[in-house]
Design a protein that fits this description.
- The complex is a heterodimer of chains A (312) and B (270).
- Chain A is mainly α and 312 residues long.
- Chain A has one domain (2-228).
- Chain A has helices spanning 2-27, 34-51, 56-79, 85-104, 117-129, 143-167, 170-180, 182-187, 192-218, 229-244, 249-272, 280-305; strands at residues 108-110, 133-136, 139-142, 220-222.
- In chain A, 48% of the residues are buried.
- In chain B, 39% of the residues lie in helices and 23% in strands.
- Chain B has a 6-stranded mixed beta sheet with strand order 6-7-8-3-9-10.
- The longest helix of chain B is centred in the C-terminal third of the chain and has 29 residues, at 241-269.
- The chains are: A mainly alpha (312), B alpha/beta (270).
- The structure holds adenosine-5'-triphosphate and magnesium ion.
Chain lengths: 312, 270
């Protein structure tokens, strides 16, 4: 049960990452590897502020702002200096590795003693529930675990809903159209470059927010924690699309959240069954590869093995 | 009102692919005038429209729209003054977004976009009316992705979008060329209706002689990046398709003459 709760909580926290990747990858069709750096940046900024006694909400928000700035830098390098989007992301991700080490002053910042959102949630749950276990559907659950899950759920639900509302505003609609048909958006007077910069800032802001929450949940920030997170986000988005069919904006955002949770659960189960943790990134990468290639391949095979259509 | 002063544009200058697409174009279009642009393939018609719209900056000359010097303005800034319909039905609409959302974008052409709700009631009610006016049965499909519509329907909607906020200048580049004859006819009828009703200053490129003689109040004929003929007033009114074809043939004959002369020179001197 603890395992399930943990997987759910992390899945919800990383759903913010998935929503960020949804923006860069699905709206702008940019596989934005800045993600790997900005999730760590969010964690680093939040961690160092928390260690210094800053209010957890402020520290978390500061982490998100840091990520948004990193995303904006990628956007500016891509649009103003006409550098390929993937390369722009690689440059910023690489630079962020040093930035993150500077922010933290070392490669790992533990948060065991600090007052964090997680510790506050735990304190609250102890104050309200009193005892240290409560029963959910008959299962005994540590009340602190439940509180953390509730915190992650609130973060994911609020962010997802806010994102949905944003994409239904004039600015949000124009941003979505930018990825769909930039020529048209330009002809209708919107600054395409500005929207790409804004979109990547928003994307990486969400990613960094996810990182800040993750650091508080796991109790440390680490310079290595971002490696491969873009692929993790892609996997979540793809699973989400398979779950919901990506038929509408609301469903797509819900899908990213559900995809992230499901993916985390699958990983937890696989690890439980004895999957070597070292193989995790390899398998994630293979999964995304398969998810990107298989639909086209299946279509091709279907056409090949279908009896030839009689000519009209 | 559009004022173009000796604009030039060379693509890929200094390379083997150098193309002098505009070689000094002067053109003044009065407010409310509907101008047809004719010319053979590669004569610079699209380049002229793109230069005005700001798809690129011209190498020399000046462009003024509605009295404003827009020569150095980026495309998205000029869009405040200019409405456009492209040749390709896929270019003018965002395919995966709904009809209503596409119009939400068009209603803010060149205006600041805030955090207001895009599909407000203030938009939906007039939108349903105007789209019902097309008589294409699209008023009940405002939530459908615009990519699911036919090319003719999309061009009709793009035209409506481009003229939703009355533009100071409307640019149409062969906007019916990719359509079947029946849809083309529909879209042309709509074009004429919108332009006449709102008295829009318009530049319309076409290859259709019947369209050229029946629409507009002025014809310019381009060749080799320049304006070769400029027909207006009674002369334009009297024009028949045969007259235009004659002029095209004259251009072709002169080109062939040039080519055979060049051939002769080549044979004799090289
Ligand atoms: N972006 C570009 N880069 C390089 N060359 C270009 C570009 N756009 C146009 N040209 C060249 O400029 C010349 C004029 O092209 P333009 O598209 O204006 O012709 P057009 O009159 O619109 O012809 P059509 O009737 O075929 O549409 C052509 O030789 C074309 O190849
Ligand atoms: Mg053309």
């Amino acid at each position: 049960m603890t395992l399930l709760l943990g997987a759910l909580t992390i899945g919800l926290i990383l759903s913010l990452l998935a929503m960020g990747v949804f923006i860069s990858f699905r709206i702008f069709e940019i596989p934005d590897i800045t993600t790997d750096g900005s999730i760590t940046l969010g964690a680093s900024i939040a961690a160092i502020l928390l260690v210094n006694g800053v209010n957890p909400f402020l520290a978390t928000a500061a982490g998100a702002v840091g990520g948004a700035l990193a995303g904006a830098v990628t956007g500016i390098i891509h649009t103003k200096f006409k550098i390929n989007a993937l390369l722009a992301g690689i440059l910023v991700m690489t630079a962020l590795y040093s930035v993150n080490l500077h922010v933290m002053g070392r490669s790992n910042v533990p948060l065991m003693q600090a007052k964090t959102l997680s510790s506050q949630a735990e304190d609250l749950s102890e104050a309200w529930v009193g005892g240290d276990t409560l029963s959910i559907f008959g299962w005994p659950v540590a009340s602190t675990d439940a509180a953390l899950l509730l915190m992650a759920f609130t973060a994911a639900a609020v962010t997802g809903f806010a994102l949905y509302l944003f994409f239904r505003t004039h600015i949000g609609t124009a941003m979505r159209a930018t990825g769909d048909n930039s020529q048209m958006v330009r002809a209708l007077g919107a600054n395409v470059e500005g929207y790409i910069i804004l979109g990547l800032a928003l994307s990486n802001g969400l990613v960094a927010l996810s990182g800040a929450l993750l650091a508080q949940y796991q109790g440390f920030a680490d310079a290595q924690m971002g490696i491969g997170m873009i692929v993790w986000g892609l996997a979540s988005v793809i699973i989400g699309e398979a779950l919901t069919g990506a038929r509408s904006l609301g469903l797509t955002i819900m899908g990213a959240i559900m995809g992230s949770i499901l993916f985390r659960l699958l990983v937890a189960i696989a690890l439980r069954w004895g999957l070597n943790p070292n193989d995790l990134k390899l398998i994630t990468a293979l999964f995304v590869f398969a998810a990107l290639v298989l639909p086209g391949l299946i279509g091709k095979l279907k056409r090949r093995f279908q009896p030839a259509q009689p000519h009209a | 009102m559009l004022e173009i002063q000796s604009i030039r544009k060379t693509f890929n200058p200094g390379t083997v692919n150098e193309v002098r697409a505009l070689q000094g174009v002067d053109l003044v279009i009065e407010e409310g005038s509907f101008v047809i642009v004719l010319g053979m393939n590669g004569s610079g018609k699209s380049t002229l429209l793109n230069a005005v719209a700001g798809s690129f900056f011209v190498d020399a000359g000046q462009i003024r729209v509605a009295g404003k010097n827009v020569t150095k303005w980026p495309e998205h800034r000029r869009a405040k003054l200019i409405g456009r319909v492209f040749q390709n039905p896929f270019s003018g609409t965002a395919p995966s977004m709904s009809i209503a959302e596409n119009f939400a974008l068009a209603t803010h052409r060149g205006r600041p976009r805030g955090l207001g709700w895009a599909l407000s009631r203030g938009l939906m009610d007039p939108l349903r009316d105007r789209i019902a006016g097309l008589k294409m049965g699209l008023e009940n499909r405002l939530d459908n992705a615009i990519g699911s519509l036919s090319g003719g329907q999309r061009q009709a909607l793009t035209l409506l979008m481009a003229s939703w906020l009355k533009p100071d200048l409307l640019l149409l580049d062969e906007h019916t060329a990719a359509l079947d004859p029946k849809s083309a006819e529909q879209v042309i009828a709509l074009t004429n209706e919108v332009i006449t009703r709102d008295k829009l200053t318009t530049l319309m490129v076409t290859h259709s002689m019947p369209q050229a003689v029946s629409l507009g109040d002025r014809i310019i004929m381009m060749h080799g990046g320049k304006i070769l003929h400029d027909l207006q007033g009674p002369e334009k009114k009297r024009l028949r398709p045969e007259d235009l074809i004659e002029r095209f043939n004259a251009i072709r004959a002169r080109e062939q003459l040039d080519e055979s002369a060049a051939d002769m020179l080549r044979k004799n001197y090289i």
